[in-house]
Amino acid sequence: MIARKGATLSSSNADVDSEQAYLTALYQRLDQLREQADNRLRGILLEAGGTPQGRTQREATRAHYAEQLAQFNSVENGLLFGRLDFSTAPHPRYIGRIGLFAEDRDRDPLLVDWRAPAARSFYLATAVNPDGVRRRRHLRTRGRVLTGIDDEVLDISAGDGTGREDVTGEAALLSALTANRTGRMRDIVETIQAEQDEVIRSGLPGVLVVQGGPGTGKTAVALHRAAYLLYTYREQLTRTGVLILGPNTTFLRYISQVLPSLAETGVLLATLGDMFPGVRARAVEPPATAALKGSLHMLDVLDNAVADRQTVPDEFVEVDHDGYPLRIDRAVLEDARSAARRSERPHNVARQIFVTEAIHQLSRQIAERIGADPLGGENLLSEADLAETRRELREDVDVQAALFEFWPVLTPRQVLRDLLSDADRLESAGCTPEERALLLRDRSAGWTPADVPLLDELAELLGIDDTLKVREQQRQRRAAIEYAEGVLEIVEGSRSLDFEDEGAEKDEILSALDVVDAGAFVERHEVIDTRTAAERAAADRTWVFGHVIVDEAQELSPMAWRLLMRRCPSRSMTAVGDVAQTSELAGTTTWEQVFEPYVAQRWRLVELSVNYRTPSEVMAVAADVLAAVDPALRPPRSVRSAGVSPWARRVAPAALAVELIADVRKEAALSEEGRLGILVPESLEASLGAELVASVPGAAVGEQPDLLNHVVLMTVRQAKGLEFDSVLVVAPDEIIAESPRGLSDLYVAVTRATRRLGILHTTDLPKVLSSLA
Ligand SMILES: Nc1ncnc2c1ncn2[C@@H]1O[C@H](COP(=O)(O)OP(=O)(O)OP(=O)(O)O)[C@@H](O)[C@H]1O
């Protein structure tokens, strides 16, 4: 455990001056590069016209410089943070957020990107395995000013020998860990620890599972891994994109600054509720309903629900065709339906087969009526007549409408909405009365995150009838060409005036129509897609990502994993989570269960064992809760103590709000700059939230509380992945009672604190917290 600054040595004034000079020179170089990128960007924005290829090239160059500029701006803070001195090499190596090279011809490295192999010893070198490093120096800066230097001498004979072997950069680490929380996660690039570094720099292919207790840095590692992968496999991943899936939008906001501070922006951060384009699923539903929707049983239910939309009449329907009644028999439609189903194509695609087959049979029916030889010979209609009959049937709106009714074109939203709001449909799809009671809801209900994998599954079952899409694209292109022809005619029409003015020979002067026809004109003006891969991926359900990172991965249901696996057929994935913290009923408690079906044994498990967030005093309390979740599980080891004991206080139920507010005031006064989290059972959220807001102005409560506030009240579910300097857990017995995974929820709740933990209870303390009695 870190208790003091270990092997940190004080630095001389001369060191400070020379490091400041180096820092200043680095910023000068950064300014120079920024100016160059800015000038090039301006130049490109002034250019216009050119060939389509030229414009595409120009757009790529523009995007390149815009990205460079954004990158230079984003590293303005903390550009430089480390220096390595080697036993044998004469020159030090400086480590920072990005790589910078000197302007000279040799392009000497001035600053090494933390992700480059040359920077790795900064994170791995220890006194026992110094890897040639004599001294590791952490440089602290504020803006462009050097504010501190922490040195670690790795040559044992030269140091005082008090440094810890399992922690690198003790002083810098301790200062990061004890700093006040801000409501936004910070990057850890200056103090990545060896076990974390191994995960971050793991290769791109395959499934990597990172299991770690609370506070072991799983989220931090996941984000730094994204930055590392984008740096190392830039070309591949810029094209295909990286997805980071987080548990909820509050969490995404909490982590939103980390990648930009690492100069990486091209990553799609999303929740499960965002994974179906056009739907932002934010509605809430009972955990048991979400659990049922997340189970693989829904595959059969959805399959049946789609099949139920492929109907036939009791006996027949009659439509008017060409002035005659046309009878469409049940048998005709049954045959057509069987043929379409046999094709095993998605519903909307198989519809073509259904229609073709039905029309084929109906055309024979008509042929028999009008082409029958009165003398009993062969039918008098030729093949051409039959083809014409089929064409007429196909174009007949009444026939179309009848066939549409029996095999309609369907959308995922329509099928799911109809299914979930209709008890008969649910029953017919194979749901038991208990399941129906859980699933049935109003037609107007909003989408929930657990609906999204169902919508995605339905999109697969329904498919898209490309013929309609292609027809629409062709129609749009024809319309564009017609428009372009109009434009060119106007150009052509206005030309004669110029000729007359100039007195020139008409034929000798090129007109717009001589150099470009309408088709080329359209091509030239087709919009170049300037969106990043992440932006395009967000709008495209079928986008295939180059890498997918899942945080709080233990919470995802089997149906959600199916969706993710579809987005990542290469199975290049990182899943980080903790099976002891699972609170969703459809979540998992073993990683085998999740990955075996997709990659069999071919996944790697790495465990993180050190808790950077929660001090040892708090972790001792959490350990008892964990033992009750599963006696086989061991909590991660805290890297530090806070010197503050957790406490518990019993209050009368009627006085809970008043007592809570008194504690909030006390805690807030203890750490004015820090953040206080109040974690409550769902049943008390609304009432305590209202009382709190009335007494503590500015406190954040509700569906998506703003974490930048100093006081935030939320449920444990909302607090997943978050942390606060100080945490008050209210009514732990109710937190336990509210869910079959209540003990895991309590474990999550007590491990959110970086410094202080208090428990307010209205009944006897639950046994798992008896150490606080
Ligand atoms: N190497 C490190 N240097 C500095 N801070 C670190 C380091 N590793 C982790 N931390 C900090 O520890 C805290 C916990 O990290 P993080 O939220 O990533 O943990 P986690 O494993 O995802 O936790 P949980 O399972 O509870 O969500 C964060 O404040 C993070 O910045």
TrEMBL record:
Keyword Manganese: no
Pfam families referenced in this protein's UniProt entry, alphabetically: UvrD_C_2
Residues annotated for ATP binding in this entry: G212, G213, P214, G215, T216, G217, K218, T219
Entry annotated with the keyword ATP-binding: yes
Xref: PROSITE patterns: UVRD_HELICASE_ATP_BIND (PS51198)
SUPFAM superfamilies associated with the record: P-loop containing nucleoside triphosphate hydrolases
Annotated ranges, domain UvrD-like helicase ATP-binding: 191-615
Keywords: ATP-binding, Helicase, Hydrolase, Nucleotide-binding
Protein name: AAA family ATPase
Protein's organism: Actinoplanes sandaracinus
